[in-house]
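Example (one chain per record):
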Amino acid sequence: MAINHITRAQAAWPILIRTARRRARISYSELCGAIGLHPRAATHLLNVIYQYCLIYELPPIVALAVSKSSQLPGVGYTITGRGGFDYEALLEEIYDFDWPDRVPNFALIDPKRKITKNID
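Predicted structure:
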């Protein structure tokens, strides 16, 4: 059975929305644990969500998912983390955005596509 990263992203979306509304961050282990996955699965489902954010010009809500120890996006996740930009300002943009309650249809997303765009 193939792993469906789109279905996983749909399960993670409401958790990220609630996290944004609480003006908080969420660790990879908390996010994945809430949907019954190992934290290593975060990379793939967050990639789907990030592609969606790019297509629809939304703030990169995936920046709320962080390493438990550093409270920053992981070292390998260069899209929203650890670059030369103001991470706290990015968080404020995410927190202040009027996020919809509806879970998006990620059908246009290619879960195998790797995004290399860096926002810094």
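Caption: The longest strand covers residues 26-27.
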